[in-house]
Design brief:
179 residues, alpha+beta, 2 domains, three-stranded mixed β-sheet, 3 helices, elongated, binds zinc ion
Length: 179
Amino acid sequence: MSIHRVPRKAFQLQEVSINDENIGLVFSDQFNNILDKKTAIKYVEMLTVAYNSKGIDEFIKNHNEESQFLQELEYNLNTSYLKYSRNGEGKYIIKKQTEFNEKTFRNDLEKPWAFKCATCNKKVSSETALHYYSVQNPTTTYSDTERTCSNSCGFIVWKEKLLNWINENGYGEFVFIED
Ligand SMILES: [Zn+2]
């Protein structure tokens, strides 16, 4: 079974009373028009067929689990630094980040300061370099940074953090990095 998203009117269920007596539920549309009997009964019959289908309980369970999973995924994307779009199949395509926060070494230090690039392990020293790069983990807005010697080494850190996040959360079928 699958869900076919055809554009249909959105209906809601509305409680109604006739002569102060509650008679139950009717369908109403977005303009608050109540559906006429013939049309409503047609929908009720369609609902009855669908809800009586073999495997419907499992289908609903799986569908709702996936729906919740995707809502969480989107929430996690929206609370990260990742920029993304959705393709025609509903997959999330992450925009590559190729430029990172360029930091200038302080020139007033008495002792030179150095670190090893998180990617290539090269020593980057205030004696020989003017800049280095601070690469924030793009999957979280908590401060989680690594230092690299260049933007290209920064990209490798960025991609590794992103791929770890995709794997740890089981997002592999839904999240892709742009080509
Ligand atoms: Zn490097």
